[in-house]
Each structure stands twice: as C-alpha cells, then as structure tokens.
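Field reference: sequence -> structure
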Amino acid sequence: MLGPLPFLAPYCGQWFVIKIGGELAQDKQALADSLGMCLRHMLEAGVRVVVVHGGGPQATALSQRLGLVTQQVAGQRITDEATMEVMKMVLAGQVSSDVASAMRRAQVPALCLSGLSAGMVQAERLGNISAPGGPPVDLGLVGRVCRVDSALLEKLSGLGLVPVLSSLADDGQGGPLNVNADNLAAQLAKGLKARHLFLVSNVPGVLDDVSNPQSRHKHLDSAQVAHLMSTQKIYGGMIPKVEGALLAAHESQTQVHLLSLSPPSSLLDALEKPGSIGTTFKA
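Structure field:
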C-alpha cells in the first residue's frame, strides 16, 4: 500500500481523465513507474480514473514497414481502408497490450478496451478539413466523437477497474472510425463531469519557443491560444491537443492540464502545486 496523499482527499468519488500519447507506451517500465505510480495514489484516495491512449508513432512506423504513405492535415491522420487496418492493429493491439503490461507492473487494475467495445464511443465522419491556407482534404475514416457511454464507464469503475480506451470509435453501424485521442479524452471529461483532464505527451506544456523549456505558458485561455495559432507557435499535432483542452475547459467544469511525465510524479505535482508544471487551460 502507498501512503495517503492529503491533497487527493477532496477528489474522492470524482473522475479524472488521463490521455497518454502513443510514444509514452514504448517504455513499459517507465510508464509503470510514472503513470502507474500516480494512478495507484489516485485509486487509493478513491478517485475514479479513465485513461485514453493514442498510437501515432507506432502507426507511422508500421505504415512505413508496410509501404504505406502517412499523410496528415492539421495534425489529423488521413485514414483510408489500408490505414484503418494499421490503426486497428496498433491501437487495439500493440499499444493496448503495452499499456496493459505497464499497468500490470504497477499493480493497477486496468481493463484495456477500444471505443468500439459495446459501442462505448460513438462518432460521425469528420469529412473535409483544411490546413491553414490549404485546400479542403477528405480525412476518410476519421471521426468526431459525438457520444460516450458514461454509464458503462461508471459500472466498470464500480467494479474497481480502470478503463483504458484506445481511440477507435463506432460509426453507429459497427464500423470503426479513427478518432483523435485528445478529442476523445475531452468528450469523456465532459460526459463524466471530470474534475481534471490530463493530456500527457513528451512535451512539458505549450512553449513559446520549442527549443526552450523555460518558455512554458503556465496558463492559457482561448484568446491566447488563438494568438499562438495565428503566429504558428501552436501547430501540427499540438492543434487538436489544444483544441481538445479548450473544449473540455469551455463545456464543463474540468480543469485541463497539458504536461509530460517528467518528473514521474508530474500528475500529482500538478494537483498539489498548481502552476508548477505543464500548461493549464481555462475557457
């Protein structure tokens, strides 16, 4: 058993949503020592947790091995039928298994599923989007999350389990759609009325200068984000991440953190010492 952490006590019975990028699942022991450790403290305090994971680096690597060209628009992966096969193998197979392995090492009772399982996540085709200044592009089998089954997640949590969802969704007819994991996490936070949403990747927050970790923005609102996008300080894969953060902050009472797992206690540090780590978003 871990020792109790007093600052977690007020969150007993409340939901936290944690999204991790696929790159973090590549080192299972490091993931166990960081995310796993934080989860164990949260569970001991009675916090209910759901985890979402992506798998971008793994999908790109597998696509290359299969001779498929990876194309992205505004941080979203164009997903044709062949790419969807890659996403299913990577998200519901490789990364899901790696996260499950890491959580076993950390003695966290994780149940790894995809959003397709029992229709837990419903999505609709996103269709055409444009990069700044570019023409509209059809993303193919890419969806926008429109509904999550919060009641099923409540039941799983009531069994003492930590649901871990990969970012595949049901198109309403049992077909798979590739959804952005940050957007999925934001919708889960909204549906569960989560107190905190953690968007965890290998970056320490939103930086004014990507080469200088000291240029971290401690807090951002929608107007500041719009300025950073217009000046291309926020670009590429950071765009859907920040949009998801603002969505959750705007549509619920969720406090949203964008941070890394360095140090390993970073999720706990963000709660105990607000502003000390990562970037926090407000509507």
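Note: The first strand starts at residue 15 and ends at 20.
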